[in-house]
């Protein structure tokens, strides 16, 4: 096998085309079809991008895109969208993304759907169009498309609400190892939504996703170990998972960890650490953390006594959660 091909096959990204590479090997000794040459050129261009040689990759990718290669269009979307070796050009990036999606590239369909979901890059917020694009990718077996379409069915966003279909799609994504699919499916099992309640299965799915570094699943692991739901209650293990998620900015885990430090549950009581994590959670909008901090400042318990700060914090809470007489 030529050296350049061994390198390309080793360093290909997830966008690699294994069937094209197999055919490329088969034709190694004789005349090769044009698409096999394109696959080789695309592999080398991706290898150049992996090495951050964007100037070296750009001419090949542009030529391939002009020949209708959807994979090259996806790479050009990255180059122009992120300004990799060229000035940022969101219009050009979006044009390449649209072309790739229209040619049936599942990654491009998902990327374009995300923009419609967010209403960003000059596109209107359009849940129905996002769901349509996710379905195109999901029907090709794309895990991200399956899970994202599942979310739309679970929430009735752009499609009629269909919890059973959401479970089916989350399951497909989870079986491919998609951490969002594993986490979403775990949530369904934890709450008995569309499936019989099964906390043990929920815990198993959360752990699969958390072990991949998926922050939301790490936070869920902290929550279930703290509550003893689906696992044996273990505040020390809860603190370990909560710390992982909290350090990565997951607000519910910051609140949980702050509460653990305040109570000395699973960790040594530490008012400074409690205050640190509760403030981070409060800054992230966690109402439970805001209310607890206000109480701490008002009473001088775990924080300096500061009635003005307590009032400032309570002003952030919805009116029905503030202390005092309620309107009748």
Automatic annotation (TrEMBL):
InterPro entries: Sel1-like, Sel1_AlgK, TPR-like_helical_dom_sf. The lineage of its organism: Bacteria, Pseudomonadati, Pseudomonadota, Alphaproteobacteria, Rhodospirillales. Residues 300-328 are annotated as: Disordered. Keywords: Signal. Residues 1-36 form the signal peptide. This is Sel1 repeat family protein. The keyword Electron transport does not apply. It comes from the Bacteria. Residues 303-312 have a biased composition (Basic and acidic residues).
